[in-house]
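Complex 280.
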Amino acid sequence: MAALIIDAAAMNDSPASLLIDPFRLQALLGDACGRFDVDSLAECESTNTLLLSRADQGAPAGSVIVTDRQTAGRGSRGRSWLASPESSLTFSVLWRFDGGLERLSGLSLAVGIAAVHALEASGAVGVKLKWPNDILYGNAKLGGILVELQGASESALAVIGIGLNLRLPEHPVTGAAFAMPPSALDQIVAPLPERHALFAQLLIELARVFDRFSDGGFASLRQQWQARHAWQDRPVRLLRDGRVEKEGLCRGADSDGALLVQTEAGVERCLSGDLSLRIL
Ligand code: BTN
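Predicted structure with biotin bound:
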């Protein structure tokens, strides 16, 4: 069975802490419990940053860090990611995949499918995905995914970070980093799922999706992603460095996870950029 590490001192020192208890989590993981080593921390800079450095030191696949609080949480494209223990679930998972980095295209989309499955299993209806790494409810952001890759030709590792809004913060933060309004799980499921049960469900679904992705890549999951794609066939605008790069109808993702936008020139593949809905 996988080791479970707990920051016991931090638990004793902070009675109001919402720390995940790895022993309680273990009981909820079922068949997946041997696949994860869960380290539960009161605080760290960023679960992705910490797990990347543990990966450099040889941490195995299945290493997980979950934290109450990040002091320097990171979002996509260099943005920061703010979260508080009461209002969020914040964690990262290390996974290793055979083959080189090129086999990992579409991984962040695949992770989105796992997140939606876990939320649906926890009672949430209407959760959708936005390319490439947003979890949406309506047109508001319920969570985000940050996948960071390192690799050689024969194997690659991924650190997969997920931040999920459980409640809207009392004092919402606004600004350029928040291109979309936030939403929270307590707007969708009442009462909120118990924290350990929700986290266990997320890990269970991630293990399933990783297995499927290892066998067949994103192509084997694409249909599931398309079915949960928030903006299928809607008019969109793709920005790069603040400049409009493409406008057209969003046709979802191709089998490599690239965004498909139908412009006057035909269906074009886009590999990066900020996607927004175009109000007609
Ligand atoms: C985004 O939508 O911009 C991605 C947000 C990803 C946030 C998560 S929280 C856990 C993990 N650690 C980080 O520093 N970032 C990711």
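The helical segments are 8-13, 22-28, 47-56, 107-121, 195-216, 222-227.
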